[in-house]
């Protein structure tokens, strides 16, 4: 299954569909505005996904999946893409092996006196982490917003009036709105345990205000590597350090000097941590800097030892 961002231009959609040889576009009702243009540009066949009522009211035949992990491990599970900031987006394929190794990476036992912060997450790639991988590996029930309705902070709060949730994952603009609205913050303090955010920064003032009353945690990662393993002290939630990310000491991640007062996160090659180099098995280091690395690099440069993304 390929998930293309609705923010892509029609030429970008068409280029990705061509590279991946897509034949079918799954749409929903109401249809997203760009769907007809994508169909016209690519010639793909459109299939409308059943609505929630249809899925709940009808009985569908089972679809057996009989392959063992050994047989399926190299087969694609989902396909995402890079941001496209330097041209057309490039596809990134997650196979079953990558997903399994990523889950192992997050499951590294924490040091004594610490807890795995990543395990708390109902966590582009971030949507897959939350809606598919976290649901499967952590057996986490997920609450989805209504389809076809523009997402807003108020809709999230209204949903919490009808169902209990342990945590909420929001984009930074929604977090900023909560920090400026005392009533919204009061409501969340009474109804959830953790507020998560990812995909951007939250201002210091907003984060300080929220973290004094509610556990606030950010998600860091990339489409290529997955979410990074993090830890926090078991005896106390680090409320004052909400803007800091404590990498798991055994995750193979180092911070090295980059420029004045700046450090670069580097994923080290480690024989005990397959996931650190799942995409780049020939690299000794993966420099995670300004630009992203995508899968074809390992095919174009199979003997590279170091790849710097600056």
Automatic annotation (TrEMBL):
It comes from the Eukaryota. This is AMP-dependent synthetase/ligase domain-containing protein. InterPro entries: Adenylate-forming_Reductase, AMP-binding_CS, AMP-dep_synth/lig_dom, ANL_N_sf. The keyword Phosphoprotein applies. PROSITE patterns: AMP_BINDING. The keyword DNA-binding does not apply. PANTHER family: ENZYME, PUTATIVE (JCVI)-RELATED, PHENYLACETATE-COENZYME A LIGASE. Gene3D superfamilies: N-terminal domain of ligase-like (3.40.50.12780). Residues 70-230 form the AMP-dependent synthetase/ligase domain. Pfam families: AMP-binding. It comes from Sclerotinia nivalis. Keywords: Phosphopantetheine, Phosphoprotein.
């Amino acid at each position: 299954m390929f998930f293309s961002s609705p923010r892509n231009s029609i030429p970008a959609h068409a280029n990705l569909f061509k590279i991946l040889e897509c034949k079918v576009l799954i749409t929903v009702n109401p249809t997203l505005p760009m769907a007809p243009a994508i169909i016209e540009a690519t010639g793909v066949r459109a299939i409308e996904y059943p609505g929630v009522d249809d899925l709940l009211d009808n009985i569908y035949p089972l679809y057996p999946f009989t392959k063992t992990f050994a047989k399926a491990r190299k087969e694609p599970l989902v396909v995402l893409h890079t941001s496209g900031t330097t041209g057309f987006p490039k596809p990134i394929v997650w196979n079953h092996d990558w997903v399994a190794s990523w889950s192992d990476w997050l499951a590294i036992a924490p040091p004594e006196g610490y807890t795995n912060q990543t395990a708390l997450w109902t966590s582009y790639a971030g949507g897959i982490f939350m809606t598919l991988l976290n649901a499967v590996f952590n057996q986490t029930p997920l609450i989805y917003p209504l389809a076809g309705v523009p997402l807003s902070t108020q809709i999230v709060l209204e949903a919490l009036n009808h169902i209990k949730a342990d945590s909420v994952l929001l984009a930074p603009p929604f977090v900023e709105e909560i920090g400026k609205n005392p009533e919204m913050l009061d409501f969340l303090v009474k109804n959830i345990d953790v507020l998560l955010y990812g995909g951007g920064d939250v201002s210091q003032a907003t984060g300080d205000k929220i973290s004094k009353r509610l556990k606030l945690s950010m998600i860091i990662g990339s489409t290529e590597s997955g979410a990074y393993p993090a830890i926090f002290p078991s005896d106390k939630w680090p409320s004052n350090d909400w803007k800091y990310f404590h990498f798991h000491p055994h995750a193979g991640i180092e911070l090295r000097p980059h420029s004045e007062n700046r450090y670069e996160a580097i994923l080290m090659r480690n024989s005990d941590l397959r996931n650190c180099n799942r995409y780049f098995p020939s690299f000794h280091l993966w420099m995670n800097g300004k630009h992203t690395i995508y899968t074809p690099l390992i095919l174009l440069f199979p003997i590279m030892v170091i790849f710097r993304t600056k």
